[in-house]
Amino acid sequence: MADRYLSFTGTxxxxxxxxxxxxxxxxxxxxxxxxRPDLDGGxxxxxxxxxxxxxxxxxxxxxxxxxxxxxxxxAVVLDASGIRDVEGLAEVHAALHPVVRSVAAxxxxxxxxxxxxPADHHQAAAQQALEGFTRSxxxxxxxxxxxxxxxxxxxxxxxxxxxxxxxxxxAYVSGQVIGVGAHETAAPYDVDRPLSGRTALVTGAARGIxxxxxxxxxxxxxxxxxxxxxxxxxDARRVAERLGGTALPLDITAADAGARIAExxxxxxxxxxHNAGITRDRRLVNMPAELWSPVLEVNxxxxxxxxxxxxxxxxxxxxxRIVATASIAGIAGNxxxxxxxxxxxxxxxxxxxxxxxxxxxxxxxxxxxxxGFIETKMTAAVPLxxxxxxxxxxxxxxxxxxxxxxxTTAWLAHPASGAVNGQVVRVCGQSLLGA
Length: 435
Ligand SMILES: NC(=O)c1ccc[n+]([C@@H]2O[C@H](COP(=O)([O-])OP(=O)(O)OC[C@H]3O[C@@H](n4cnc5c(N)ncnc54)[C@H](O)[C@@H]3O)[C@@H](O)[C@H]2O)c1
What we know:
Bound molecules: nicotinamide-adenine-dinucleotide
Shape: globular
Largest sheet: 7 strands, parallel
Number of domains: 2
Order of helices and strands: HHEHEHEHEHEEHEHEHEHEHHEHHHE
CATH class of the largest domain: Alpha Beta
Radius of gyration: 21 Å
């Protein structure tokens, strides 16, 4: 279902009317394409406070070239990791106040912070302040500009994260706080096809977000396995054929689903994307158990079961990546979705609890993407007014596309993302729900 309002506001009468009436004015987002894989413009690297991070070499590899000529940077990185007190926050204001207006449309602002120091409440206060600052700035910038905060201790560990946040691939990721741990040595990889030689399995990949995820992981070099219910086998085969992968018709709720996947992948698996999901909406007072159980089964129980089975069978190789699909409904809650909200909040619980163990025992990372309003068949079925509200109630004033979730998944699946673990990253254009 096309977003006609977004198309209309791109026309001259549309611009005139929305300005006069004070209506939301979504900017068309610049996404990655083979012809234009990078941002259009340079990088401005600023520092607030005294930083110990050695960022320059990492930014030279990941970001756009330094912005010295145009005065309209496409990306601004503000290193505020060294700020330890409230006085230091004045430097954040001093650094960004003069440049915010000049950031190019669809530009990126990335604030770098440090983990909160539990032994120093002044440092913790100042560093937590960066979160409120980042989220507030994200709501102000407009023009498709995103603003995110990365908490890190080690610059090389954040290489894949900075590459993602400073690229057109992160067009619909804004207002996020991402923690990056200590550096994990990544096996060598090809920059253009980082998943080359790796196998990725995506559940629910016959259509929608899953199809886009499979396509994007294949673009990055992975051999993809397209899993979907037997009823969607024809579509799954069509997707697999197009991507040079294989189809696996399987209901993920089957008790032996993990064993069947392990059997289909005798050489092991590197990337496991739990994307399959369903909704059965009804207010709790009207919801029979028949509508409650399948949602919990598909969205949560099967994610737990297959994860456990594939870890136990050793199918998921060292350095493996698990990306589960949560939702803003699991964060903010949503009327009519007690079952769905419960299942998706459960996914975030699983991710946060499993992440430290998976890394210790198996060198595996476990993260979640939490989509907001994404234009798919699932959301096309939503009644018109709720759909319009879903589209506009975020800082970018539009719905996301499946590719936005897919690009985020590809970053988490990246071989150099070993220090990104236990994170729940919203792909929601900074939705006002649960913000
Ligand atoms: N579209 C959105 O706005 C949005 C927002 C938040 C979260 N999500 C989540 O993103 C994921 C993908 O959503 P979508 O919009 O692409 O949905 P979709 O309905 O278009 O696609 C879901 C796919 O999962 C498959 N599937 C369902 N049950 C399955 C099972 N038991 N075994 C195997 N495959 C199964 C379906 O056949 C379908 O191909 C879901 O987990 C959904 O909850 C979507």
